[in-house]
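Quick bug: Acyltransferase output formatted oddly.
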Amino acid sequence: MDEQVGGTRSFLPAVEGMRACAALGVVVTHVAFETGHSAGVDGRLFGRFDLAVAVFFALSGFLLWRSHAAAARGLAPRPATGHYLRSRVVRIMPAYLVAVVVILTLLPDGNHASLTVWLANLTLTQVYVPLTLTAGLTQMWSLSVEVSFYLALPILAMLATRLPVRGRVPAIAALAVASLLWGWIPFGAPPGLNPLTWPPAFFSWFAAGMLLAEWVHSPIGWPHRLARHRVLMAVVVVAAYLVAASPLAGPPGLVPSSAAQFTVKTAMGALVALGLVAPLVLDRPDSSYRLLGSAPMVTLGRWSYGIFIWHLAAMTMVFPVIGQFSFNGHMVEVLTLTVLFSIAIAAVSYALVESPCREALRRWEKREKKQPAATLRQEDAIAP
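Here's what came back:
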C-alpha cells in the first residue's frame, strides 16, 4: 500500500499557521512602505514581503482543488458547485462589505468617495475599473483576483475532467508557465488601469497549490521526496526571495517596470509559495510543526482574513496614536501597533460577522438537506 501523505488529512493545522504568516507578511510590506522603507536594500527586502500574496493564492489553489483531484482518482465524489459557491460568498462578502462601508465612510482619506469607487469596491471589481483602488482598501486588488479564481475554478475543474489523470499535472504546469507571459501582452490600457493586476497574471501562484493538490493524491514520488527535505525547501525559498528582491524583478513595489521583470517576480513568487507550502502538505502524516501548528498560530490563521482586510485602516489609526506622520520612520512601533490593532479588529470581525454567517449557512443547508451539519472544512475557510 502506498504511504499516505500529510495532505490527505482533512485539516492541517500548519496550513492555518502559514496563512497567519502570510497575513502578517502583507502587513510588514505595507508598514515598511508607509514608514519610508521603500528604497535601498532594506526597501527591497521588506518590499518583497508582498510575495505573501503568492502564498495566499497557493493555499487557495491547494485547498479548493484537492477535492477535485481526489474526485478525478475516484477517492471522493465530485464537489457540489452550489455549496462551493455559497460557501465562497459567505466566507468573503459579509466581512468584506462591512470593511468597505466602514472604511469609505469613516477613514479620512476615503471620505467623499465617488459612486464609481463605491460600486467598484463593493463588487470587488476595482482591478477592472480605473482609479478605484482607494486609501484603506488598496490591498483588495488581490482579493479581487482571488474571487475571480473562485469563480473560474468550477470551469477549470470541468475542463480537467476531460483529461486523463496522468495529464492533469502537465496541463496545470503548462498553463502556469503560459501565464508568466501575461506581462508581454501589449494591452494599451487606459490610465489608472493596470492589466498586471488581472487574474491571468497570477495563475502560476494558484497553480502552485493546484499542483500540490494533485500530488497529495498521487503515489509517493519525487515531489514528495523533495518536499520532505526541509533544508532544501528553505534554500529554494530564500534563493527565490532574494532574486525577487533584486533588480532582476524590478523596483520595490507591486508593478515591475518591464515585462521581463514581471515574469521574474511572478515566477519567483510561485517558487516561494511552493517551497513554503509543499513541506506542509506533502509530508508524512506523523510530521509535526510545533510553531505553525500551535494553538496561537491556528487562531491567528482563523483570523487572518480580518487581519488582511483591516490592517491598512488599523495602520492609519496608528500614526496619530504615536504622534507621527507617514514616511517618517518608526517602523518597529508602527508595525507592532498595526499588528495588535489588526488582530483585535480581526477577532471582533470573526466573532461577530464571519463565524455567525458561516454557521447560518450550515444551518440553512442542513434544513435543505443539501449539506450535513459537519465541522467546518478547511477549504471553507479560505481567504486572504
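Actually, after a second look the formatting is fine. The CA atoms of residues 126 and 284 lie 42 Å apart. Closing.
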